[in-house]
Amino acid sequence: MTVASKVTEADVRQTVAGARTIVVKVGSSSLTRSSGHLDAAKLDALAAALAQTALMGARVVLVSSGAIAAGFGPLGFDARPGDVATQQATAAVGQGLLMARYETAFGRFGIRVGQILITAEDTIRPQQYRNVQRTLGRLLDLGVVPIVNENDSLASNEIRFGDNDRLSALVANLVRADALVLLTDVDALYTAPPSQPGARRVGFVPDVVAAMDDVTVTGPTSGVGTGGMVTKLEAARVAAVSGIPTVLTCASNAGPALMGDPVGTVFAPVKQRGSSRRLWIGFAADPRGTLVADAGAAKAVRGGRASLLAAGVLEVRGAFSAGDPVWIDDEAGDHLARGLAGFDSEEIPQMLGRTTVQLRRFLGDEYAHPLVHRDNLVLV
Ligand SMILES: Nc1ncnc2c1ncn2[C@@H]1O[C@H](COP(=O)(O)OP(=O)(O)O)[C@@H](O)[C@H]1O
Ligand SMILES: N[C@@H](CCC(=O)OP(=O)(O)O)C(=O)O
Asked: What is the number of other CB atoms lying within 10 angstroms of the CB of residue 314?
């Protein structure tokens, strides 16, 4: 949508109702019973609401949690496991069961589903990023509803999304969605956790960045979900700065939310859509190291159109591989930008302070490249 200076709730709801491409995220808490086990009736109801939207011509991507919830019962556990290794094994069992349920549920409407499992690590590698983007695009062209989850069984503890909220915002950005719908176990955002006396429902958030200071949010309270309201606001923020409106409500409101009815909380986009690749670099994962720019390089990077050349870098910190996200800091230690490194951290010390001509002469053609190319760099 075009972002006017005073966008109203009705404008944003209308954009959601008319969205051609929609990413819907459903949390574990909305797919489970109070025991934490998967609730097939809830899953069926959600699939029915999404199928209706898809049959009306929308391109729908579902980001679904629930692998661990679906897996622990069949494995004989009483509750969701707490340790990472058992969670990963449980997700390996549960993910297949979850997909089987979705296949049946969408199949009733003649709709095919396709599974995409993503690790945070995948999302920061340019090749993988393009592959995910291309596959999702092709699935949507084929009329399939892609069902995305974090690849829990392979994700490393250090670098993982954990919750699926931020992943859904990144997917929305990747498929250039017109709307993001976050379905959870509360009907809306409240000014404080709903269990607190005096918490008021918020219907419209014109500026999510400003709103983050005005509401009190906590992590999960259900014992099933992972990120709570904190990561949902973060997802709404990522979507908003990607130019995408977000609706947050409970899963039973999925149908009305997609129709643009006044349910839940709607977040306006805060600026025009940026390049999805750049946004991805900006939000996908935590930087693994730092390149310290000298004053000249810092000025060039701040200008917004320059690559970071080895000639202007004083120091490299941290251990990372080519393609990993890194901070670009100035000499005072302030962050200037995030970017994807062009080289492994071990290769960089010999390159520091050298011009492109010197790099070619002393180290060879393969080193005559920027440490971070401007296409892979986002100012912070
Ligand atoms: N300000 C708030 N407004 C609404 N809900 C909140 C707020 N702060 C915390 N919460 C809690 O966030 C929970 C949803 O997060 P979570 O359990 O992680 O869900 P999901 O599994 O859908 O990701 C709600 O059950 C609610 O209790
Ligand atoms: N990837 C995990 C989801 C983790 C989780 O609970 O996320 P969420 O419900 O979004 O807080 C799973 O499928 O079990």
From this structure: 15
Q: Count Cβ neighbours within 10 Å for each residue of 139-153 and write b for 16 or more, e otherwise.
A: bbeeebbbbbbbbbb
Ligand 1 atom showing the smallest separation from residue 184 Cα: 22
Q: What is the pLDDT of residues 117-146, one digit of tens each?
A: 998 777 777 778 888 999 999 999 999 999
pTM of the entire structure?
Answer: 0.78
**228 a known binding residue?**
yes
Taking all residues of the chain, what is their mean pLDDT, rounded to a whole number? 89
Instruction: Please state, in angstroms and rounded to a whole number, the distance separating the CA atoms of residues 263 and 246.
Output: 12
Q: What is the pLDDT of residues 54-86, one digit of tens each?
A: 999 999 999 999 999 999 999 999 988 989 899
Helix axes 126-141, 276-283, angle to 10 degrees: 130
ipTM of the complex: 0.95
Ligand 1: which residue has its CA nearest to atom 15? 228
Q: How far apart (Å, rounded) are the C-alpha atoms in residues 357 and 293?
A: 19
Q: What is the pLDDT of residue 219?
A: 66
Q: Domains of the chain (ranges plus CATH)?
A: 4-279 (3.40.1160.10), 287-379 (2.30.130.10)
The neighbouring-strand residues paired with 289 are 318
Ligand in closest contact with the CA of 198: 1
Q: Is 91 a pocket residue for ligand 2 (Cβ < 6 Å)?
A: yes
**Residue 226 C-alpha to ligand 1 middle, in angstroms?**
9
- 324 marked as part of a ligand binding site: no
Task: Give the dihedral of Cα atoms 32, 36, 38, 43; nearest 10 deg.
Answer: 10
Ligand nearest to the CA of 166: 2
Give yes or no for residue 324 CB within 6 A of ligand 2: no
Ligand 2 center to 266 CA (angstroms): 22
